[in-house]
Structures are given as C-alpha cells and as structure tokens.
Automatic annotation (TrEMBL):
Protein name, UniProt field: Uncharacterized protein
Keyword entries, A-Z: Disulfide bond, Glycoprotein, Membrane, Receptor, Repeat, Transmembrane, Transmembrane helix
Keyword set includes Repeat: yes
InterPro entries assigned to the protein according to its UniProt record, in alphabetical order: LDL_receptor-like_sf, LDLR-related, LDLR_class-A_CS, LDrepeatLR_classA_rpt
GO cellular component, as recorded: endomembrane system; plasma membrane; receptor complex
SMART domains: LDLa (SM00192)
Organism: Capitella teleta (Polychaete worm)
Predominant cellular place of this UniProt entry's protein: membrane
C-alpha cells in the first residue's frame, strides 16, 4: 500500500506539460478539462471563475462562452444563464 502512496505523490510533484493544466493540489489534467463544469482536479481549482474577454459572455457558473452563443436557444453555459432575458436583445 505504501508503494501506491509513493507513486501518487510522485505523480503530483511532476511538472505539467504545455497541454496540461496544473491544479492547485499539484495534479495535472488535460487543458480541455479546465472550466468544463466537472471537478477534474478533485480540488475544484480547474473550475475557478476567471475573467472573460470582451468577446465572451460570463455565465452564472463562471464559465466563459463566445458572445455568439448567447441567446441562441442552446444551453451553452450548462446552467441556462446564457438563455435568460434574451428577449431584451431581440427588438423588432
């Protein structure tokens, strides 16, 4: 059992590659898993809210999506916040 613990510690101390995100707990995950709504780091650090760019909409859950996805009828934020109050954006 101690061998498993040592292997686990070594994995967490390794540097992440350029294709990986380094979690706050030291774990490395694939960049694609960052901000995907799942706690892939197991400490939540891959889901921390970051500032969105001017070309992005900030979802209520902290995700950033492209402005073009706002009010398009799809739940792109995965919390529905990109489809709330959309009638304010469409005037005839």
């Amino acid at each position: 059992m101690s061998r498993c613990v040592i292997i686990s510690i070594i994995h967490y101390l390794d540097a992440c590659t350029s294709e990986q995100f380094k979690c706050a707990n030291g774990r490395c995950i694939t960049n694609a898993y960052r901000c995907n709504g799942n706690n892939d780091c197991r400490d939540g650090s891959d889901e921390v809210t970051y500032a969105c760019t001017s070309e992005q909409f900030k979802c209520a859950n902290g995700r950033c999506i492209t402005n073009a996805y706002r009010c398009n009828g799809n739940n792109d934020c995965r919390d529905g916040s990109d489809e709330v109050t959309c009638e304010l954006f469409f005037f005839d």
